[in-house]
Amino acid sequence: MKYFLLLFIGCIMSTKAQNVIFDNLKEAPINGGLEMENYWVWGSSVIKGDDNMYHMYASRWPKMLPFHPGWMIKSEIVHATSKTPEGPYQFKDVALGERGAQYWDGKSCHNPKIVKYKDTYILYYMGSTHPFEDVNKENLKDFKLGSKWSIAARWSKRIGIATSKSPYGPWERKESPILDIKPNSYYSFLTSNPSPLIKKDGSVVLLFKGRSYKEDGIAQSDMSIGVATAPHFDGRYTVVGDEPLFSMEKFGEVEDPHLWSDNKGYHMIAKDQRGLLTGGKGDGVLAHSKDGINWVIDDKPKAYTKTIQWNNGKIIKQGQLERPFVLVEDGEPTHIFFATMNGPGGFGNGTKTWNMVIPLK
Fold this sequence. Notes:
Shape: globular
Structural class: mainly beta
Largest sheet: 4 strands, antiparallel
Order of helices and strands: HEEHEEEEHEEEEEEEEEEEEEEE
Distance between the termini: 33 Å
């Protein structure tokens, strides 16, 4: 009797210890997601529209440019659709493209996150600009991470929103970002990688990435993740507190946070940049919250690794696996999307990128 009681307790503890993502990953469809010829494709966000189609918003930029830092100066956000969450998704239009160096987001729009409140679709994204001539075949040799284009574009990264009554647009952009930098803060250099959650009352919790200037006033810091709130998606966004949620000094450096809610509460998944939380560099880490502001790392934190089981029987370690996005339907997570790259790893070693999807059990 004592044995069966211990077994029962053990089963309960085992169930509680399950990671809601890692323990529920199914096989990835080999032809799912979105890939576009002659473009680098990255980071997707998906929503089901009133037309019962699944609408994906993703970043792309021409393969004439190197993957990194090409996105800083030429990324645009595209819209694609599918009848099923898995896809494949078909390109429909450019949702947010270049609109002139005089705008804060005039040269690059990147890292989209789509949400809806009542009858309005809200597209959160990172925008940047630069005042220089375009990079072309003639001056491509001069374009690199330390070039004038990249320095200006990285320094000007900010978070903004665009709104529409339809997933097909047109999209109305703001003349100013919704989350700017703040001197002498952990986001004094840039704000990026927005991940919003709109509550039932219309208020917003927004996770974001920040970097600060180092003491020399030139170099930038490691990445930190902060949280901002707003009374409404079109209201004023206020960063909560003076300290980040995640940083090298607190928990560890993470990137690409994605925030979602389901029947069990608020959740965050992110890339463990250095492996300090999960034990695997670049693996996914899972955290939970009761209010979207105060976070607890999961008891079983590893949410995914770069090793993928495909539905053609192959098991492949992807070169890169980033920008996780969890699709929730009827209060339950159903799919997780990733930006991925082939090759041995490293942004300069891949030949193609695409947005992939894994169904969840």
